[in-house]
UniProtKB/TrEMBL annotation:
Annotated localization: Cytoplasm
One GO CC annotation: cytoplasm
Protein name, per record: Urease accessory protein UreD
Cytoplasm among keywords: yes
Species assigned in the record: [Actinomadura] parvosata subsp. kistnae
Pfam families: UreD
Subunit structure: UreD, UreF and UreG form a complex that acts as a GTP-hydrolysis-dependent molecular chaperone, activating the urease apoprotein by helping to assemble the nickel containing metallocenter of UreC. The UreE protein probably delivers the nickel.
Length: 258
């Protein structure tokens, strides 16, 4: 049965951070569609932006995109005001939510959104593409919730692609929900409904990478593992029965205790 295309919402939000003396300014802060971008109180030399959702999104057929750049020497922190909920909407066509991050020389970017919730009958393809300079720093958190309380999840595909100094650092893709083989089996979620990861890229890890470490004594209550990558980076992955436990595990495993 063919899937109706559905017009959906087309929107791109843009953020650009630049160094100005000893601080970071935001010469570009342009919201669009469901994205309302707000400056918040800076922290030291780091500019802070909060993304507010001003309409239900993403819905089926939507094409949403966020572009954020930290220029040389700039320091940027981005979060969201609330969880993002993927909903079916008026069409069965999939929605896309693409995030593109660029971090230049001696710059840093913290991308720390609230969880993404895959509601029943939704169909979302989310991607995050990141380009880092050789001495750039990145902290990225991703938290996924498969279904709201008492309901099954929709279909969710996520992809994270990271390049550092023009070379691949990490490229992974996961698919959850209806028709995704084995997504709820013992090799993937094993019955849990919250999954997340914390990626930290820091040139300091070239000399002293953390050792592999497991967090959480009871698999039924969720666990996290910290793994050094083949580059100056660590990846923390976690599974948990709910978002509260998931965030606790990611925070406990963070080597810098953010």
């Amino acid at each position: 049965m063919p899937v109706e295309p559905g017009p959906g919402v087309r929107a791109t939000a843009r953020i650009r951070a630049a160094r100005a003396g000893d601080t970071t300014v935001l010469p570009v802060l342009a919201g669009d569609g469901p994205f309302d971008l707000r400056r918040t109180r800076p922290q030291g030399n780091r500019a802070r932006v909060c993304i507010l959702g001003v309409m239900s999104a993403p819905l089926g057929g939507d094409r949403l995109r966020i572009e954020a750049t930290a220029e040389p020497g700039a320091h940027l922190h981005i979060t969201t005001a609330a969880a993002t909920i993927a909903l079916r909407g008026p069409t069965t066509a999939h929605a896309t939510y693409d995030v593109h991050l660029r971090v230049a020389e001696q710059a840093s970017l913290h991308w720390l959104p609230e969880p993404l919730i895959s509601a029943a009958r939704s169909n979302l393809r989310q991607s995050c593409t990141i380009d880092l300079a050789a001495d750039a720093r990145l902290v990225l958190r991703e938290e996924l919730v498969l279904g709201r309380s008492g309901e099954p999840p929709g279909r969710l595909t996520t992809r994270l692609t990271v390049h550092r100094d023009g070379r691949p650092l990490l490229d992974q893709q996961n698919t959850y929900g209806p028709d995704a083989p084995g997504w709820d089996g013992p090799a993937v979620l094993d019955g849990h409904r919250a999954a997340g990861q914390l990626l930290i890229v820091d040139p300091a890890y070239d000399k002293e990478p953390p050792a592999v470490r497991l967090f959480g004594d009871d698999p039924a209550g969720g666990q996290a593992v910290l793994t050094p990558l083949a580059g100056p980076a660590v990846l923390i992955t976690a599974l948990a029965p709910n978002t509260l436990r998931l965030r606790h595990l990611l925070d406990a495993a963070d080597p810098l205790g953010r």
